[in-house]
Amino acid sequence: MLRLVCLLAVAAVVTNAYRRVCYHSNWSQYRTIPGKFLPESIDASLCTHVIYAFATLNGNHLKAFEWNDESTAWSKGMYERFNAMKTQNPSVKTMLAVGGWNMGSAPFTRIAASDASRQDFATDAVKFLRTHNFDGLDFDWEYPANRGSPPQDKQNFVALVKKTRETFDAEAQTSGKPRLLLSAATGAGKDKIASAYDFPQLIKYLDMINMMSYDLHGSFEDKTGHNSPLKAGPMDVGDDIYLNVEWAAHEYVRRGVPKSMLNIGMPLYGRSFTLKDRNNNGLNAPVRGGGNAGRYTGEKGFLAYYEICKMIPSSTKHIIQGEEVPYIVQGDQWVGYDDKESLRKKVDFVKQEQFGGVMVWDLALDDFTGSCGEGKYPLLTEINRELRSGSPAPVTNPTNAPATTQAPVNTQPPVVTQAPVVTQAPVNTQPPVVTQAPVVTQAPVNTQPPVVTQAPATNAPVTSAPVTSVTNSNNICLGKTDGYFLDPQDCGFFFQCAFGLAFHEPCPPSLSFNEKIRACDYPTNVPACAHYHG
């Protein structure tokens, strides 16, 4: 018995040596059962840090995004319900993410522009986080010096992070409370790594970095490709050789990020395509666009694992040579995803190279109810299991350790396997209910007014024409308050008017801008624009 207790204690120590950072997407509360996900659905024993996505900005200040984020006199808000997980796991750290794809760059550009605005933000952030019982803040600026953000924002982001960290340090000294944590979610694309982040400076002030090593391929492209390859495959040519977890992680280290600070992002969802030709259904096969929307997630080209697992028995499964990740083909549907086997390989990569931990997007996309027959949270549970297996724990450098220059380590040789076709009935694909993309989600009847639901933190590239910023000399925003406005020339685009600039932004694939709700929405809800997406 004593030996068993000792073994369990050792296993816990090994697991806890790695960070397990889990994002919680608040808009998942609007999905229908069994896809509906609430703070009470979180298993806090599976994570060391849980990050609530997303807060937004009101001027220089943090602002709750959803109508029910904050508690009222008559209801317990989502923030309060989320932080109640600390009673389940007192050691878990809860953090609040600000930003996301839908918020874009403009609000961050404003607060990062001057020392006064940076200080105002940081001072308010401390108050906001303490009021709502969070343990820290996660910057999700997608992306500095990109999407209309000027080149100087690469350094302005450093200044913003620096000021925030200094303010967190000072507050901890005066309050006697543990210092608020500070992290950033950062892109994994080659161009974003180079243009957006001054890593040697950022690492001085951040506690950890969450690398968004997913959405590396998707329906924004004209051919099939996996969402999150572990390594480059023999079919990768040109810039595709950089679109994998291994290359991005090594590039972070080459640019000065200590391995101990880096959390490797892993998706609990897949990206899907509709094939042009069912007979041409391999990797890099031509596509007509995103795959069918999931019954519960409701976005074309995107499926939660609990939706994918229902398709697997009636599909042909393949492992992509070299990339070490699976895809399935069912009729004209091609779905690249991660399963327990591919995630084990990614965890082994983390352990072999002694990175600080893993990050997952997001909890609501794993099979949190156990409907796949693999138990609850099969993917995240497998990540935890592999982290505490026999391999040694990483060398834990202190926070803000100096940059390392370790050489890349070659991992295991590629293998190719193919599962047999199983002839079960195909999954029932009912019409979508709620979209994962940035659309408005109505609050329940007899509740507060609806607000726009935030899009997920992803590394998806811009899917239409390049985003540019123009001045009001073009009269685009003349006479308009700050906000979002339809591009009269193209329903798939909108303008964000902010502090004297007009930012031209694309909607996600297959969505149109809805002027009534001032957000991207299904074309069926925007009759005048329905023809844009067929």
Please explain how this structure is put together:
By secondary structure, the chain is α/β, with parallel strands linked by helices. Helices cover 22% and strands 21% of the residues. The protein is built from 11 helices and 23 strands. The strands form 5 sheets. The protein has an 8-stranded parallel β-barrel with strand order 1-2-4-5-6-7-8-15. Strands 9, 10, 11, 12, 13 and 14 form a 6-stranded antiparallel β-sheet that branches. α3 packs across α5, α4 packs across α5 and α10 runs parallel beside α11. The N terminus is likely disordered.
Quick tags:
single chain, 534 residues, alpha/beta, eight-stranded parallel barrel, six-stranded antiparallel beta sheet, 11 helices, 22% helix, 21% strand, globular, disordered N terminus
